Amino acid sequence: xxxxxxxxxxxxxxxxxxxxxxxxxxxxLKPLMKNIAGIxxxxxxxxxxxxxxxxxxxxxxxxxxxxxxxxxxxxGQILQVTGQLASSVNTYYDEDSxxxxxxxxxxxxxxxxxxxxxxxxxxxxxxxxxxxxxxNINELLKILQKHLSLLL
Length: 152
What we know:
Blueprint: H1 13-25, H2 30-50, H3 62-70, H4 84-88, E1 90-93, E2 98-101, H5 107-112, E3 114-116, E4 122-124, H6 134-151
């Protein structure tokens, strides 16, 4: 697995258009970016709590369930045996951007899915914990509209 960071870009034309309008009219977007980062963080927390939204994550394999039972960690939430992945998710914002991510080496395999383990013989299904729902997008649009209206 590569140590290269993965990047997931929000591809929503309406959000992008509002951000461009704001950039033209605003002297500082940093407070807005802080709010956007907050929405990202809340979305990730909700994804861990609900084990995927709106679609539930693929259940644990029988081998993983058996292993968790053996170590006394089953039943338990998917992706939260120790809580390290969830607690590693952090945000960053500046004048031009809002970012969310994890610095854990295994974070990408859980987000995107793929082959892992010795000789990459284990298939890990994608369980996107850094995912925005339609409600999150609508929340972003609402704060963008509010910020824009304050500038007019």
